[in-house]
Structures are given as structure tokens and as C-alpha cells.
Amino acid sequence: MYKIIPNQSFAIIHNCSGCSSKSRYINTNRFRVNANGNKLDVWLIYQCEKCKHTYNISIYERQKVSKIPQTEYQLFIENDMDLAKNFGRSMQFFTRNKLEIESDSITYSFFDEQEEELKADLEIMANSSITLSNPYGLKLRPEKLASDLLKCSRSQIKKMLENQNLIINQSNKSIQIQINKSESLSG
């Protein structure tokens, strides 16, 4: 099984006080940690691309320090880039904070269990089936996904679907793509 992994953190659309309009914000890969007595607040910092105003997205609010794992707390203090990227690619994180993700700008790659990128195209995948897990819950159109995976046009994918040379089964967390070899497969 292969995984669909976003290439970078999601951008969000948010009202910017500096621009006085909705703007695109990107992940700075930095955290803000604030302690008030025995309570702790932790935010992931996003920044307006135009004017550089920041917007703090809540990770923990008024949480007892003892409730946060010590190793995670240390990573927040160190501005761990991997942890910031993980939060920046978590649909649940953005849903919980009621934020609008700029879905048009999401790019992704396909990786196997050993974190190696899948090298596939229409000829390599002929007469085979591949299952892709979608652990980040990306909202992807099946035709676009197949087009990106097989490195061919969407019109070619639609033609293959019509001729039943391509079958796509999609569930909530996985997508199965089956390619049936035919003389007209690459045409």
C-alpha cells in the first residue's frame, strides 16, 4: 500500500488586519509557547504572504503542563520543524480551529511504507492494481489523482474510465486504482 503525502504544509485563507482583506497565510514552522502559572498555551504561527502579519493557530489552550508530554513540550520550545510540518498537514488540526484551507494549492507525492517515492506511469502500471491510503484526508478528485499518479492527461483518464480500461474505487481513507491493458491504452 502506498500513501498520499502532502509536499508542504497547507496554506490557509484568513482575514488579515494588515491587508484589510482575506489573504493567504503560510506556515512559519515556528511555535509560540506561553505559560501563565501552571497553565500553558501553544500555537503554530502562520504568516500573511503579503504583509507578514502573523496569526497564531491554537494547539493547546490553558492546558496543565503535566498534561502535555515532556518530549512534545521540548519540541515546541525548540521550534521543531518536523512537528510544525505535521501540524501544518493535519486536516483535523485545521478543522478543530475552523480554518479554511486553500485546497487548490495542495501538492502531494506518493510514498511506500519505506518512505520511498512511488515511480509509476501508465506503461509500468498496465494490468495491475494499486491501493493508496489517504492518511491526511486530502479531498482529491479521483480523475485528478489517477492523472497525477499515471502521469497522463485527465481527458485520457476519462477516456480510459469510459472504456473500462481504468477502474477507481474510493473510500474514506483509501483509493484503489486498477489498470487493464488494452491496445488503445496509451491513445
Question: Short summary of the structure?
Answer:
The chain is an alpha+beta fold and 187 residues long. It contains six helices and ten strands.
Description of the structure:
This protein is α+β, with helices and mostly antiparallel strands and 187 residues long. The protein is 24% helix and 37% strand. It is built from six helices and ten strands. A five-stranded mixed beta sheet has the order 7-1-8-10-9. It has a five-stranded antiparallel beta sheet with strand order 5-4-3-2-6.
List keywords for this structure.
five-stranded antiparallel sheet; 6 helices
User: How would you classify the helix and strand content by structural class?
Assistant: alpha+beta
Q: What do the pLDDT scores average to?
A: 88
Distance between the termini: 28 Å
Largest β-sheet summary: 5 strands, mixed
Taken in chain order, the helices and strands follow as EEEEEHHHEEHEHHEE
Instruction: List low-confidence stretches.
Output: 183-187
Please give the number of β-strands: 10
Q: Which radius of gyration do the C-alpha atoms yield?
A: 21 Å
Helix content: 10-25%
List the helices and strands and how they pair.
Layout: E1 2-6, E2 12-16, E3 21-36, E4 39-48, E5 54-64, H1 70-77, H2 81-88, H3 91-96, E6 100-101, E7 108-111, H4 122-125, E8 128-133, H5 142-150, H6 154-162, E9 166-170, E10 174-179
Parallel strand pairs: 1-8
Antiparallel strand pairs: 1-7, 2-3, 2-6, 3-4, 4-5, 8-10, 9-10
